[in-house]
Design goal:
This protein is elongated. It is 13% helix and 13% strand. Among the domains are: 30 residues, no CATH class; 72 residues, Ribosomal Protein L15, Chain: K, domain 2. By secondary structure, it is of the alpha/beta class. The strands form two sheets. A three-stranded parallel sheet has the order 1-3-5.
Amino acid sequence: MSDLNKLSPNPGSTRKRKRIGRGPGSGLGKTSGKGQKGQKARSGGKIPAWFEGGQMPIARRLPKRGFHNNWAKHFAEVNVRDLDRFEAGSVVDIEALQAANLVKNNIGDGVKLLGNGDVDRALTIKVHKISKGAQAKVEAAGGTVELIG
């Protein structure tokens, strides 16, 4: 039985820490492995990954096209044809759609029901948005629609 206070790593498995800037005998004295002068030799001389040496960055050299709306809403889309997996009379809400793998856990700004396909059973739909065609198809099948938020 060995004593825990006498444990040591296997010979050769660990190396001594490299001590830079400790004189010429260490092999890393004087400039400490940083070469001669320049920004990268200075303390705090870090250069961002996107820095291009002072030339005009590529993001500013290339022409800009189009428009990106920072305030656009992004909805997870579900079509009426996908609702055939639910029993007649059931409540179809966000949790039910996620359980049926129709929408992912990250729904963005909500769920919108679109009108592709047909529905043949009465369902209670609870979504954030719905198209007019989808609402007409759900109500024609005897279902109801509730908008969330």
